[in-house]
Amino acid sequence: MNTKKLSEIWAKYRPVLIMIVFIIVAECLSRKFLTVNNIMNVLNQTSMNAILALALTTVILTGGIDISVGSTLAFSGAAAAWLLRAGHSTVLAVIVALVIGVAIGTLNGIFISRWNLQPMIVTLATMSIFRGTTYLLTTGSPISVSNPAFKMIGGGKLFGTIQVPIIILLVLAVIMHYVLNNTPFGRHIYSIGGNEEAAYLSGVNTKNVKAAAYAISGLLASVVGIIMTSRLSSAQPLAGQSYEMDAIAAAVIGGTSLRGGQGKVVFSIVGALIIGMLNNILTLLDVSTYYQTVIKGIVILIAVMIDAKSN
């Protein structure tokens, strides 16, 4: 096989090849890594970051960024917990949380697309606004949740084996893959990221598409907020803090270009799995959390360098 062919394979399947190498190395370092229980644990722990990676992939494909997802999930989860504590049903709490996520995402999208403001600045502002709003709603203390039906969202299992968050991730991944690859909206997302001016001149309503992309990001962030609140049986004021960094890293490691117009949903999930496995193997090896943070930062930097090189 010639060098050109190898380069093409590397460019096309880079995230998958990295994951395979990582699995082999991780298993050599710890024989506990590929046990069924550990793999299920990795998938369950990775599910939330993977859903956020789907959210970030959507907006990054347009050439944007959304660093408010952590605050969005915190406020959505807190709102759901507040409603449940007030005696409202699980269905109402979930619907309200999802609506809040869409509303925050749409707000970001309007400021970015209609007012032509920088995505980083807009989402930085809304990150601060809704983190503060979460503190106000929770008064700085956790809101406990005791509703059994709601707890099933984050802690339930299908067939007694597969956790519900994993099922939610798979369903959302299939939906997002179909939307981005088989609908006009998805093609418009890619075209805007590739060349927004050309997309506009070809008849794409770039403002509406970009606003919709941020609305989807907010919706997926609220899904994570619901899962997290359910899993912890409480809404934490600091929930989701710094989660946007892991989600961005997952998308970039998965091959989503920060320049926009290039990336795949499946590979973003692979990126999230790589980060999840990295955290898991470091924990199995009893590496200090301080070193884990440093190592994760190095991995993110390498991923960005690879992205820059490939473009």
- Main pleated-sheet profile: 2 strands, antiparallel
Classify the fold: give the CATH topology: ABC transporter involved in vitamin B12 uptake, BtuC
User: Mean pLDDT across all residues, rounded?
Assistant: 91
Distance between the ends: 24 Å
What percent of the residues sit in helical stretches (DSSP H or I)? over 70%
What percent strand? under 5%
Number of self-contained structural domains: 1
Please state the structural category.
mainly alpha
The order of strands across the largest sheet is 1-4
Compressed to H and E, one letter per element, the order equals HHHHHEHEEHHHHEHHH
Supply Rg: 19 Å
Please, how many helices? Answer: 13
CATH architecture group name: Orthogonal Bundle
Principal-axes geometry comes out as globular
The total beta strand count reads 4
CATH class: Mainly Alpha
Low-confidence stretches: none
Question: How are the elements arranged and paired?
Answer:
Elements: H1 3-29, H2 36-60, H3 69-85, H4 90-114, H5 119-138, E1 143-144, H6 148-155, E2 157-158, E3 162-163, H7 164-182, H8 184-194, H9 196-201, H10 206-232, E4 234-235, H11 243-253, H12 265-284, H13 289-310
Antiparallel strand pairs: 1-4, 2-3
